[in-house]
Amino acid sequence: MARRGIPFGKRPGAPGGRGGPGSSGGGERGGGRRPRVFAVSEAVELAHRTLEQHIAGLWVEGEVSNLVLPRSGHAYFTLKDGRGALPTAMWATSVRRLRFRLQEGQRLRVFGRMGIYAAQGRFQLYAERAEPVGVGELALALEQLKRKLHDEGLFAEARKRPLPAWPRGIGVVTSPNGAAVHDIIKVVRRRMPTPILLSPAKVQGPEAPYELIAALRLLARAAEARDIEVIILGRGGGSMEDLWAFNHEGLARAVVDCPVPVVSAVGHEVDVTVCDLVADRRAATPSQAGELVVPDRRELAARFDEYQRRMVRNIERRTVDLGARLHGGSRRLERWGRSWVREQRGQLEHSHARLLVEVRGALEADRRRHRALAERLAAVDPRVRVAQQRRALHELERRLIRAGRSMTAELRPRLARAAGKLDALSPLAVLGRGYALARDEGGRVIRKASEVEVGDAVSLRLSEGQLSVEVRSKAGAVDP
């Protein structure tokens, strides 16, 4: 496929060094000379130079159709209206100077020169500049960029990161001479003094976007080493042209790629730039950005005081609950101890009764045997049988005594342990360990210092004896 709109090279003159824009090829002149014959390329060149000489440059308005954007960067399209069509070519250098993207169906006002594309002999317009009709060039470019970034998901809230509640360091990208940096420093110092690292950059002019990108990337690289946890990117208010640097696509992508959250604070509340839309948070002004990134120490102090009051109330309520539970547990333990002692005493009395019954039964059996033996002895040899039975009787008596002693020795430790447990649960045993039971003049038990006043008479029950004392001073609760 032949290249379209290739500019003409060196313009050749007419054959034989003659001919030019005023040369004519029709008819004969005096002397019977033959008419001049042009080559196709010469005829096209002649028409091209004639157009350039008579139409040096003009503005043409029409609708874009048949738009072709090859990899070379050139643009080829047709401008048309209801009555005609004009093929148009725009070189890559002119396309790059446009602040908007060419699109099918746009209505443009194009400035250029008329010419003829020699390879095809086609009449066309060589465009040098173009601007949209009905909408400003900057506004159209901004709208196209917003649509592009939106389609990529860079405006989505789900992508944006939360700001740190209490950053260790703050980075600021703005002009070092503007009011914005002073407003940010003033607000941060008032609310919560925090280290601020300024990365200076121009915020207006053709170089501003590239300086802002470099400054932002510099802060991003230093974020970990300098404890930078949030970055403020902004400037004061201005016109749309003044704020245009913050609508740069490269800066918007640098904000998205920044490893720490970015707060955009560009202009005033009514000004909305592309950086505002891609940043993690947007602040209406630089001062508000300072309020967003650091907490208010006075508000934090009030919140801490409230937390402290709640904690004290919870501790007091918990102490009362535990005291009630302890008192209830003590009473249940005391009831259980008394019940256990009664049970052990009953078992001991039952064992003692069984022992008496067994001993009496054994004695009665021995008596019966003794009587039987005596009767048999009387029936036979009284002296021998009496002596034998006497020895047997003595032996039985000794066995009985040993059995009684053995049973008594087994029961005595159990009785001692039961008595010890009963004694441990006795209130008098608590007094024996050094404690005292305090009562007021009415005989009521005193549990807290708040129940008596200085000068009151108090009686103290000790393990042995009782004391009457006078209250000279008192203090609050004492930690156990």
What composes the largest sheet? 5 strands, mixed, barrel
Distance between the termini: 99 Å
Q: What is the molecular shape?
A: elongated
What is the tally of beta strands? 13
Strand line-up in the sheet with most strands? 1-2-3-5-4
Low-confidence stretches: 1-30
Tally of helical segments? 11
Strand content: 15-25%
Whole-number mean pLDDT: 82
Instruction: Give the % helix.
Output: 40-55%
Please tell me about this protein's structure.
With 480 residues, the chain is of the alpha/beta class. It has 11 helices and 13 strands. It has helices at residues 40-54, 92-97, 137-151, 179-191, 208-222, 249-257, 274-278, 286-293, 297-379, 382-425, 427-432, and strands at residues 58-68, 75-80, 85-90, 107-117, 122-132, 170-174, 196-200, 230-235, 262-266, 281-282, 437-439, 457-461, 466-470. The chain has a 5-stranded mixed β-barrel with strand order 1-2-3-5-4. It has a 5-stranded parallel β-sheet with strand order 7-6-8-9-10. It has a 3-stranded antiparallel β-sheet with strand order 11-12-13, with no helix packed on it. A hairpin with a 4-residue loop joins β4 and β5 (122-132). α4 (179-191) runs parallel beside α8 (286-293), α5 packs parallel to α6 and α9 runs antiparallel to α10 (382-425). It starts with 39 loop residues before the first helix and ends in a 10-residue tail after the last strand. 18% of the residues are buried. Mean pLDDT is 82; it is low at 1-30.
